[in-house]
Amino acid sequence: MATTEETPTRKIQVKRFKPEEYPEKHYLNQEKGLWAWLTTVDHKKIGLMYLMSVAFFFLVGGVLALLLRTELLTPARNFMTADVYNQVFTLHGAIMIFFFLIPSVPAALGNFVLPLQLGAKDVAFPRLNLASFYIYVIGALFTITAIFTGGIDTGWTFYTPYSSTTGGSVAMMTLGVFILGFSSILTGLNFIVTIHKLRSPGITWNKLPLNLWGLYATSLIQILATPVLAITLLLLTMERVLSIGIFDPALGGDPVLYQHFFWFYSHPAVYIMIVPGFGIVSEIISTFSKKVIFGYWAIALSSLAIAFIGFLVWGHHMFTAGQSSLANMVFSFLTFLVGIPTGIKIFNWLATMYKGSIDLKTPMVYILVFLFLFTIGGFTGIMLGALSVDVHLHDTYYVVAHFHYVMMGGMVMAFLGGLHYWWPKMFGKMYSEFWGKIAAGIIFVGFNMTFLPQFIMGSQGMPRRYYNYIDQFQAFHQFSTIGAYIMGVGFVIIAAYLLHSLLRGEKASSNPWGSRALEWQTSSPPDLHNFKHTPVIINGPYDYHKPMSEFQLGIATPHNGHGHHEEEGMDVAETEKEKA
């Protein structure tokens, strides 16, 4: 008669974890040399390579913007022809959107922070993560080639029939963006699997940091929407090369069909840019207000709601394109609807700050700038969602100002807040708080000087993308250009003090902000594998109602298989019971 022998269970223990203040060995000095960086599968180094890449493209896009504003100082020609002007504003838009705004938070900051906030050693597919970066670089090389082999003057939207018939390197440019889309898709896939499968013990869905909810919603949009753009640009390239007549009316095509395809991706792409920024805002506000985040589930689910409704509003870009009145009404209603979950976030953030112990460090200053500028962008978006108003404001500088208040006033300010927030964790060095706040103030003043006049110009009928203009708009354009110069000075200051911090900055402690989030419970800079032991999460990431003496992070240590513990500690269940 067979007998079964009972095998001992492998229990997990919890021992109090205390990170090193500044470790001798960390991810930046354990693998040295250029080849080690180019072949690394460490998510932190890949995130830094993305960060350097998007910073380069931000510099290029910013210089192009300053060239545009300089040309617009006077109504007459200053230093560039109309054709060159068209190429410059096309490249400014394409570079800023496809090579900076879309990858900056998810691919750069997200890659660095996401496994740390999960207590994981890396993302689910490290080699795929590195491949995503190289796909991004290949797409950028195609774009650079297009610039030097004829340029492109279609605008960043590549609208047909002009883009399918004009000269220049349209096919090369669209091919670069097509390739870039695969990087976005693979990054989104990697993040979703990582969040589902690699959470440390104790991280339930209601203990997931709101930054990760933002990245999760963004990843869903990347996977579902980006293939539509890829197919659209592929069809455009085929039309240019093979004359197959999908969009060209001379060949039996429909140019409005291109707009439907393009905006079905490009409006969700707006949320690829801004939703991860929302996650950063939640982290920073809670940390620097020292309060439990107000309405955790409302903020988390509103990110998913934005991702869902964002797929249904593409038609509000086409109110003047000949849609039926019924379609215009439906898209107008949905445009108002998508503002509700965004408003929920703003009110919850304000409620979190209410009666909080607010510490105005540089990251928090950028978030306050974000709240002011993004709210203006949101209100002006409601104006553009109204049919009667949009017909007048469509394709004017009002739209330019609205878009920049949302994208730059929103996403870029959130990105700068996140960059300053996690900079000590990335490099283990502190930057100058004085210069950080000075730069934030300069950017705030310069930004409003640049774009507030454009609301006035647009409401008075100044069309966007125009090389010349009538004299009545000259004072507005000059004021706007001076603001752009001031804003540029602010970004130069940021680059200067961050680079100075790498060379001569003070060493950062493991948790300089006093945060309760998991990424701050390891050393700065982190270990090569993030945590030396598997962390066991007992508290939530926003448990600021508990004194720091009661806030505990455990490390998982197993039995040695002989009924004895390898290290002294407590069983997870016992610890959680005691904490309860």
From TrEMBL:
Residue stretches spanning the membrane: 48-68, 88-113, 133-152, 172-193, 213-236, 256-281, 293-314, 326-344, 365-387, 399-422, 434-456, 476-499
InterPro entries: Cyt_c_oxase-like_su1_dom (IPR023616), Cyt_c_oxase-like_su1_sf (IPR036927), Cyt_C_Oxase_1 (IPR000883), Cyt_c_Oxase_su1_BS (IPR023615), Cyt_c_oxidase_su1_bac (IPR014241)
Localization per record: Cell membrane; Membrane
Gene3D superfamilies named among the record's database cross-references: Cytochrome c oxidase-like, subunit I domain
Positions of the Cytochrome oxidase subunit I profile domain: 29-538
EC number per UniProt: 7.1.1.9
Stated family: Belongs to the heme-copper respiratory oxidase family.
Protein name from the UniProt record: Cytochrome c oxidase subunit 1
Chain segments carrying region Disordered: 557-580
Encoding gene (name): ctaD
Function field: Cytochrome c oxidase is the component of the respiratory chain that catalyzes the reduction of oxygen to water. Subunits 1-3 form the functional core of the enzyme complex. CO I is the catalytic subunit of the enzyme. Electrons originating in cytochrome c are transferred via the copper A center of subunit 2 and heme A of subunit 1 to the bimetallic center formed by heme A3 and copper B.
Pathway: Energy metabolism; oxidative phosphorylation
Catalytic activity reported: 4 Fe(II)-[cytochrome c] + O2 + 8 H(+)(in) = 4 Fe(III)-[cytochrome c] + 2 H2O + 4 H(+)(out)
Organism from which the protein derives: Rhodohalobacter sulfatireducens
Membrane topology label: Multi-pass membrane protein
Keywords: Cell membrane, Copper, Electron transport, Heme, Iron, Membrane, Metal-binding, Respiratory chain, Translocase, Transmembrane, Transmembrane helix, Transport
A Pfam family: COX1
Leading EC class: translocase
Domain of life of the organism encoding this protein: Bacteria
